[in-house]
Write a structure and sequence with these properties.
This protein is of the alpha+beta class. It has one domain: tt1808, chain A. 23% of the residues lie in helices and 30% in strands. The strands form 4 sheets. The protein has a 6-stranded mixed beta sheet with strand order 3-6-8-9-10-11. A 3-stranded mixed beta sheet has the order 5-4-7. The protein has a two-stranded antiparallel ribbon with strand order 1-2. Strand 1 (25-28) and strand 2 (31-34) form a beta hairpin.
Length: 187
């Protein structure tokens, strides 16, 4: 019996298509995956994160981006939910739409993305030399996981469960109180 193989796109094919598309998609190992719409809770958490980080970084040489900034990892292209850069941003080309050097990446977990965000996506993110902090934020409960890169390429894990908890983002000298992350979110 013959099996039909999957079509593999080149990075150039993906980027050409993505720049013309009305919807976003990620590119992983030659395959293109459409990005699904986000829930109200996801959007509220994302807005809260951008607002909180943006206010704290306003007078610093840092930028906060939400969901539409691509990150390049080897030949893969993904869209983190929120990311932070500082100092000189590095881009893949003159389009300034593909970031190479994020310091902080935040993913907001959903039923359909949690395994991916915890698994292959985090594995790929670890190849970004500039990445220092990775946060996973639950949207159905008060639960944030923090991974901070250590000097020996290991990641230190910390978990936060209480609205009174405060997450220290040492690399960018910011604080993220869980009560701000989950403001206006039904838990």
């Amino acid at each position: 019996m013959l099996t039909q193989g999957k079509f593999i796109f080149t990075p150039v094919q993906y980027l050409t298509q993505e720049r013309l598309a009305n919807t976003r998609s990620e590119y992983i190992d030659g395959e293109i995956f459409a990005m699904a719409g986000a829930s109200r809770a996801h959007n509220q958490i994302s807005s809260n994160l951008v607002l909180s980080l943006g206010n704290q970084l306003f007078d610093k040489p840092c930028s906060v981006y939400a969901s539409d900034m691509k990150v390049n990892i080897a030949t893969n292209y993904v869209y983190p939910d929120v990311l932070v850069t500082c100092e000189k941003e590095q881009f893949a080309d003159d389009h300034t739409e593909i970031l190479l050097n994020p310091l902080v990446i935040i993913e907001i977990l959903s039923d359909t993305t949690e395994a991916y965000d915890r698994g292959i996506k985090f594995l790929n993110y670890q190849f970004i030399a500039s990445l220092k902090i990775y946060l996973l934020v639950a949207q159905k409960s008060c639960h944030v996981e923090k991974f901070i890169r250590q000097n020996n390429q290991q990641w230190l894990y910390t978990c936060f469960h209480q609205l009174d908890d405060n997450i220290e983002l040492e690399t960018i000298q910011c604080q993220l109180p869980l009560k701000e992350i989950y403001r206006k979110v039904q838990l």
